[in-house]
Amino acid sequence: MIYFDNSATTKPYPEALATYTEVASKIWGNPSSLHNLGSQATRILEASRKQIASLLGKKVEEIYFTSGGTEGDNWAIKGVAFEKAPYGKHIIVSAIEHPAVKESALWLQGQGFEVDIAPVDARGFVQVEELEKLLRPDTTLVSIMAVNNEVGSIQPIQAIAALLANRPTITFHVDGVQALAKISTALYLPDRVDLATFSSHKFHGVRGVGFLYLKEGKKISPLLTGGGQEKDLRSTTENLAGIAATAKALRLAMERQEDFEHKCHQLKEVIREELAHYPDVTVFSGDEGFAPHILTFGIKGVRGEVIVHAFEEYEIYISTTSACSSKAGKPAGTLIAMGVDKALAQTAVRLSLDLENDMSQVEQFLTKFKLIYEKTRKVR
Asked: Which branch of life, at top level (predicted)?
């Protein structure tokens, strides 16, 4: 089996699973309980929070646990919008955001907010000068993802941070789900970023856990109320075992980040250069300015899901662009925003690599690709 779908989810580290099992079986107390079992749970909870904050170079009180990227994005967009509604109801998101951001913004339109969409260029990068034109006195939130999940373009977060440097009334949110432990933290967490969303299962943690970075002094309305957990901002009994496993996975992933970037870039470039030799293949992901692990391409006239299933017959697992929308059969929203024709966008498939992948797997993939390419000759 060859697994090239790591942007959809990663295989949990054995060490992270061991931590999960140990905490779940030995520290089962509720952190909100006053007795000793609750105190033990609280110590694990806060130790995990401290470790994550340290790894990000942030303060411990700036980390809030969630159930993952979708909740984190919903909370960031809706929570900031409602918190700052008395000062303005205009928000800006980019044309290539994950549905958790884009759909949250569109939902807010029905609640009386105004939403502008910042365009991207033909390579999938937010155009900072066009974003600047959208800013208004009543703009309260700008949300831009760090690494695009469909083509891998690394967004100009630092340039946008500079643009917003003298606009302290605007909250700057970054969806960092595809960036954490993949690229340098400096690229997506400059000091001007006020909120950032992360998800454990994207860096070899377990599913159902994530966290939000919220800069000290910034305010956000809660989505979940009731129990008072996470300083009254996110009420629900904490997934303690998952949180502890997340802290362990993040430490390991960040220790291996340099090796990850180097190896994945090498593997990606071998595939990208080989695919460029096929006349009916379009490669949508570039080299410079793109994440090392994401490569998206299409075969002319062949829908992406056909290619996904063709590789599956060889036990090679890839995906159509976004895992969250792939079953809906929709063309890649990022490619449409880039100006790619809808018919061509529907051919797109995504490879997403990991440190565990190697050159022998790349060679097997390219061998099978040649067979699939020949089989689709009539369609092309």
From this structure: Bacteria
pTM of the entire structure? Answer: 0.95
| Strand pairing class (195-199; 210-214) | antiparallel
- Among 208, 230, 252, the domain-final residue is 252
Is 324 catalytic? The answer is yes
Dist CA 108 CA 151 (whole Å): 27
Residue from 17, 106, 134, 324 carrying the catalytic annotation: 324
Length of the chain: 380
pLDDT in tens, 40-49: 888 999 999 9
Which residues, 6+ apart, have CB-to-CB distance to 232 below 8 Å? 222, 225
Torsion angles phi and psi, residue 198, rounded to 5: -140, 155
261 and 237 both lie in a single domain: no
User: In whole angstroms, how far apart are CA 61 and each of 52, 120, 212, 330?
Assistant: 11, 34, 11, 40
Residues in Cβ contact with 130 at an 8 Å cutoff, skipping those fewer than 6 apart? 118, 119
> Are 196 and 311 members of one domain?
no
Same domain for 75 and 186, yes or no, is yes
Spatial distance between the Cα atoms of 312 and 175, rounded to a whole number of angstroms? 30
Domain of residue 272: give its range.
Answer: 2-8+256-378
Q: Are 146 and 178 in contact (CB under 8 A)?
A: yes
Residue with tokens 């690599």: 353
In whole angstroms, give the CA distance from residue 100 to residue 91. 15
Query: Per-residue pLDDT tens for 271-322?
Result: 999 999 999 999 999 989 999 999 999 999 999 999 999 999 999 999 997 5
